[in-house]
């Protein structure tokens, strides 16, 4: 089938050259994914990220993951003392569902590459890996209490008070959220005071500036997580907005800490693809891609969406359910994915600047989105976000048939994506 717009076949990382030319000098490159359990999305994002680091001097990765867990990866790749003997040991410590998002062979291989890269660099030029998300309320509180018990007898009281306030809810945020609906009592003042006390006690960290930033970020997570869970139980767009606002605030803090350096963001398409060009806008929602474009300028932000026509994926049938390899059916008729499949059943790179001559791409079109909870048999009735593709993204990577991610306890298939990704196990 003929196509009125240009696309670039994808076979290996050198085929990404047109993408890197389009990225130019952008400070922020946001890399999406249409699911949280697809092997090819991780490997292509890795290929792009490695080239951004090597060729364009990008300094850190911000991921849709919990701050405390991702900070363990950060410490490992920087070679800090007591940061773990192997990356497998580090990733096996990831406990919060969905563990497969980060405890997988694809991330393990990337982390080992980053560790090797960092060994050759001075401290100021080493690459960092950070979690941007807001979910880790109890993990962040535990991290703060454990640190302050060893370093300060005064600031610890504010942290313990915040911890005790949440303790009665048995690490179940839904229980806390429901309780705040029934009564006005909540833990907001406790976590805000804890953050204030940590910012006053900078002398605690005078020999370890990274520890200071880590503790303050954990306190900020606690503040915004408390806000998020209260908003979540009330419904509406506010909880989504609290979460994405926190992720951008964290990205801002990291950018300042790294002297306004360039950064890569790894998140789902629904977070990085500009919400103004989806039906999210109608519901009063914004997202990371929109806020980064607004805060730093569209010319300084480059967004890459990802998608596929069919294949397999790792997901669960409900929250906290066992992970499964699930079939991803052929995309819905008249969707963006079906359009790309009909053009040709090959993997391809599309630049939004090349879509101007195709009137069909200037219209709203259904675009698939798969979450950590997935029901393939019902996909025809959901899982699609109406989007204006050339505005939502600056580029799009299409994998015609994808395969499931490899959770850490499974061995990787060395035959997949030959020549693109060097497995280290």
UniProtKB/TrEMBL annotation:
Gene3D superfamilies: Biosynthetic Protein domain, EreA-like (biosynthetic domain), EreA-like, domain 2. One of its GO terms (biological process) is response to antibiotic. Keywords: Methyltransferase, Transferase. GO terms for molecular function: methyltransferase activity. It comes from the Bacteria. InterPro entries: Emycin_Estase, Hydrolase/PRTase-associated, UCP036794_erythomycin. This is Erythromycin esterase-like protein.
């Amino acid at each position: 089938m003929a196509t009125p717009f240009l696309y670039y076949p994808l076979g290996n990382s050198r085929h990404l050259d047109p993408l890197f030319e389009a990225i130019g000098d952008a400070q922020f490159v946001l890399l999406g994914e249409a699911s949280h359990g697809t092997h090819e999305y991780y490997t292509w994002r890795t290929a792009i990220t490695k080239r951004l680091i090597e060729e364009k001097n990008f300094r850190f990765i911000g991921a849709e993951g919990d701050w405390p867990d991702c900070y363990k990866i950060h410490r490992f790749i920087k070679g800090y003392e007591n940061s773990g003997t192997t990356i497998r040991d580090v990733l096996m410590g990831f406990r919060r569902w969905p563990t497969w998002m980060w405890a997988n062979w694809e991330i393990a291989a990337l982390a080992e590459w980053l560790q090797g890269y960092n060994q050759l660099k001075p401290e100021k030029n080493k690459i960092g890996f950070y979690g941007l998300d807001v979910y880790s309320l109890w993990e962040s509180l535990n991290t703060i209490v454990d640190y302050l018990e060893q370093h300060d007898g005064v600031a610890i009281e504010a942290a313990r008070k915040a911890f005790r306030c949440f303790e009665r809810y048995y690490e179940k945020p839904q229980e806390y959220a429901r309780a705040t609906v029934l009564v006005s009592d909540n833990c907001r003042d406790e976590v805000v005071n804890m953050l204030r006390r940590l910012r006053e006690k900078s002398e605690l960290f005078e020999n370890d500036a990274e520890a200071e930033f880590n503790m303050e970020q954990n306190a900020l997570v606690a503040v915004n997580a408390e806000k998020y869970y209260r908003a979540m139980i009330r419904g509406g767009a506010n909880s989504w907005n609290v979460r994405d606002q926190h992720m951008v605030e964290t990205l801002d803090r990291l950018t300042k800490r790294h002297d306004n350096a360039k950064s890569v963001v790894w998140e789902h398409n629904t977070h990085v693809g500009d919400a103004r060009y989806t039906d999210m806008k109608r519901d009063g929602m914004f997202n990371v891609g929109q806020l980064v474009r607004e805060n730093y300028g569209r010319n300084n932000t480059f967004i890459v969406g990802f998608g596929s026509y069919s294949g397999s994926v790792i997901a669960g049938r409900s929250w906290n359910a066992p992970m499964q390899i699930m079939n991803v059916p052929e995309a819905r008729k008249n969707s963006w994915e079906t359009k790309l499949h009909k053009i040709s059943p090959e993997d391809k790179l599309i630049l939004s600047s090349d879509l101007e001559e195709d009137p069909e791409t200037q219209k709203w079109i259904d675009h698939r989105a798969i979450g950590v909870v997935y029901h393939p048999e019902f996909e025809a009735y959901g899982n699609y976000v109406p989007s204006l593709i050339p505005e939502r993204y600056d580029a799009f990577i299409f994998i015609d048939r994808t395969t499931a991610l490899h959770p850490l306890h499974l061995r990787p298939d060395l035959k997949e994506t030959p020549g693109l990704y060097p497995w280290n196990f």
